[in-house]
Amino acid sequence: MKDSKALIPWLKPKADNELKISFLNIQSLKAHYFDLKNDHRILLSDIICLTETWLSDDSEDTCWTIPGYNLYHSSFGKGKGVAVYLRDSLEAQNKQQSSRKSLQWIKVTVQQLDILVLYRPPKGCQADDLKTQMTPLVATKNRCLVVGKYLFSVTLRF
Fold it and tell me: Would residue 69 be called left, alpha or beta, if left means φ above 0 and alpha means ψ between -120 and 50 degrees?
């Protein structure tokens, strides 16, 4: 497959003050680990954010390592979970996480940037509950990037 022109800026070297951040709904890290580990475009990322990792809480981090990255994850089993791969050269100044059936999230702070990865399953927490949980996480002095998959069903009546 040919590289799209849209990818050309991604493939160019980055400036020292830039971060390359990728987000994927991996739909099972176990099933797609080899693909992730060998994708040269994704590996240009300083930070790789994943949803639907499908890992269990007792998953060995060493099974899912990618050379040059540290792995942080918040898991809850099949169809759920989030993870962040952080390049070795970056220091995670702060890490928080929560793993409940209705919502999984992980927050990592890098270079005064809060990165919040969240996954809300189809029958997960209500919108108000999500807002209540997320507000303190994004109300910081740092810039904040929120990525993830947070499904909501809305019923419209006419």
Answer: beta
